[in-house]
Write a structure and sequence with these properties.
mainly alpha; Arc Repressor Mutant, subunit A; Tetracycline Repressor, domain 2; 2 domains; 73% helix
Length: 197
């Protein structure tokens, strides 16, 4: 008879399975990875993952949710650490860049997946909204301080696109991490200075 699992046991195994899946998915591609392979990577029976997840789609969703939550945590921590709107804005962008460069597998699973069969869960959508909301909030701070004008959501996407581009250039080996960080700071300061009324 299988032992009764506590909530902590379930959370611990789900986290370990998601960590293994993140590595395997990024290394081999989602389609190439099976639940049997994930079970083998954790040293458990092939049926064990089914005690914690319905299927591979649910694991993919959980991995992406975890990645977006960690990403949002990093952005929010940077936001909360600075009072000056311009410095806060630059810090949020740097946190974005640091997350991408320090977690390339998670970052790829967050943004590079296309044509997934299963719709995103509410948890994944909420984690993505947290990250997006932080991008809008730091830009709203710039608008409120009179440093830029315009709509916070549109301007937030412009800042996001900028740092996304620098992260991509670094991850593709086109520029060094140091150059990516330097260019991000330069671009951010330029957008703030040139947008000021």
């Amino acid at each position: 008879m299988p032992r009764i699992l506590s909530e902590a046991d379930v959370a611990d195994f789900r986290a370990r399975l998601c960590a293994a899946a993140e590595e395997q998915f990024a290394e081999h591609g989602i389609e190439a990875v099976t639940l049997r392979q994930l079970a083998a990577a954790l040293g458990v029976s092939p049926m064990t993952p089914y005690r914690y997840f319905r299927d591979k789609d649910e694991i993919i969703d959980a991995v992406r949710t975890s990645a977006f939550d960690r990403f949002a945590d990093a952005l929010e921590e940077a936001f909360d650490a600075h009072g000056d709107p311009a410095e806060r804005s630059i810090a949020v962008g740097e946190a974005y860049l640091d997350f991408a460069l320090n977690n390339p597998r998670a970052y790829a699973l967050m943004f590079d997946l296309k044509d997934l069969k299963a719709p995103p869960s509410e948890g994944l959508l909420a984690a993505g909204r947290r990250a997006q909301d932080c991008q809008v909030r730091h830009v709203q701070g710039l608008i409120d301080a009179g440093l830029i004008t315009g709509n916070a959501e549109d301007q937030g996407r412009i800042f996001w696109a900028s740092v996304y581009g620098f992260a991509g250039l670094v991850l593709m080996g086109q520029i060094s991490p140091e150059e990516g960080r330097r260019l991000h700071r330069l671009a951010s300061r330029s957008m703030i200075t040139n947008a000021a009324p």
